[in-house]
Amino acid sequence: MSSHALQNAQRRGSLCARPVEGGQEAAASAAPPGLLAFSSGFGPTIAEEEDVDPALALLTANLPAIRSAQTVPEKVELFLRKLEQCCTRVDFLGGESHALFQAKEMKRRILNELTIAICTESACLTSEVSSAICSMVAANAFRDIPAPASPNAPEFDPEEDDPMLVPEWEHLRLVYELFLKFLESSAAARPETPKLYVTEAFVKKILMLFYNEDPRERNMLKGILHKIYGNFVCLRRRIRKTIEYIFCGVIYDRKGKCNGVADLLQILGSIINGFALPLKDEHVTFLTKVLIPLHSSTHFNSFHDELKYCTVQYVEKDGGLAWPVIKGLLKYWSKSNSMKQVHFLFELEEILDIISDRQFELALHAVFKCIIKCISSQHFQVAERALAMFNNGIFFNLVKQNKATIFPVLAPVLNRCVTQKAYWNSTILEIAKHLRQKLRQIDADVFDNALTENKRKRKERQESRDDREFKWRKLAELALQNPTAAAAEGEADDFEGGAHMPSTARLKRQSSGTSLDGFEGGTEEGDMATSLQDGQLPTPQPLLVRRKSLLPRNSLVQAKLASFASEAHDGDAPSEPLADEAPADGKADAGDPLLSSDEAGGGMATDKDSA
């Protein structure tokens, strides 16, 4: 190849030495035609096409090794030229031609050489070289995440589906290793480095790569992001805010699926572990507004361990946050997802291991109400996990200290499960039987008194229920003796809300012994019982209805309406308001169907207006 062609190739390749401003379109327009095989990334891509000689010449140009240079300026010049070569991306989906194979091998050798040079030639890491390294990483790593082939395609499930691997991972891995070595070097510790090269936009693009399905790339990105957070203090707030933005998309957007939530939570776990005390308000807000609502995500099972670690770290830092975290768990407790309930029980147990006595007293009733529901769950894994919590020594000591409050609610459930064999799984029955024996060993008197008190309360509730049913049956018998019962039944059938009015058929069913537990007497039950004992029927209350067919007639209203209609027909408006011409005694005729409900209530509206 002529020297002129080589110079042109080097000039065209210099476009890759820095990220192209304007995004993907600008990069495509700046690169020479025939070099872009696909649109992702900043640098040009060598494809299996006929016109590839310039880019191949750039990438496969035999440059001397960096260690062979004698002076530092020569090494810096070689460093820059080799970084410029690595900005060219190779299409791993273009086939297996000899030219592509040669380009892949050459780029792999150059990246390995540069990684070694960063560790051994620290004097070469000048400001210009640092800028070229960041540009090379951007050219190779920053790309569009491929979308699903169909918008209706099911989401990626890491437990069921195989991830979509990055084709160019052979080169991308070396790029990430080179950048990681650069972040660990002394050049990254210089104060001007983050301001000029590792900017907020650069970090944001790195975080967006966590949406990728390839776990190998996300694992490398975790180390890079951790190094950036540790070295560059000025970028820490931006990193936390970007992670918060990603998590909010997962919480509140049904389609906001991020494959790297577990990886980001691992990074957050180490960040939370380094928080200074007392915790800042923004850190507490991040817990209450982001981490706790993250329990409601439909993808919770894919990152529950990492999320549990973060919440427990917060409680260890500040014990006063235990009750807010427990309230959040109970708020987002699943009603139908049994595996999510098991994960919540694990997290609840770890929080109770480190909770203070004061916080436990606040959460006592709510926690054991939830645990009792889980013990009674028909899913054996949920019940087994809830019973296994009592094997924890710290939790069992808390139960001992609060036996007077816990035994009255826990003992009846265990006793019913064991004596009546109310559970279908024999293993759960054996565990419940063993737990009942352990609780009796703590204090048999308190345990037996709790069972006795529960029996007494059940008996009282049964007696109250029987007494209520007797009163309703007595009321039904008295209502059947009313001669107007048939007429009332007809009116109730015509009424749209007739279910609230007693019909003869319903009264007969009530008198035959049908339970009416759904109709609670409330505060009027005592008065009703007194009336029934005296043999008198209680005075019925007026129905709050506005059906004209059920309201009494009023001759005054009919006369006024007729007068208004005649005056309107003649073109004259009524001269006086309707309320001013009411009768002096305030009584209305009971035969007018056009009377409004306010007037039917005994002239209340007129009295109110006049007052």
What does this structure look like?
This protein is mainly α and 611 residues long. The protein folds into four domains: 182 residues, no CATH class; 168 residues, Alpha Horseshoe (Leucine-rich Repeat Variant), CATH 1.25.10; 70 residues, no CATH class; 60 residues, no CATH class. Helices cover 60% and strands 1% of the residues. It contains 28 helices and two strands. It has a two-stranded parallel ribbon. Helix 4 runs antiparallel to helix 5, helix 15 packs parallel to helix 17 and helix 21 packs across helix 22. The longest helix has 37 residues. The chain is elongated, with a radius of gyration of 40 Å. The N terminus and C terminus are likely disordered.
Can you give me a brief rundown of this structure?
The chain has 611 residues and is mostly helical.
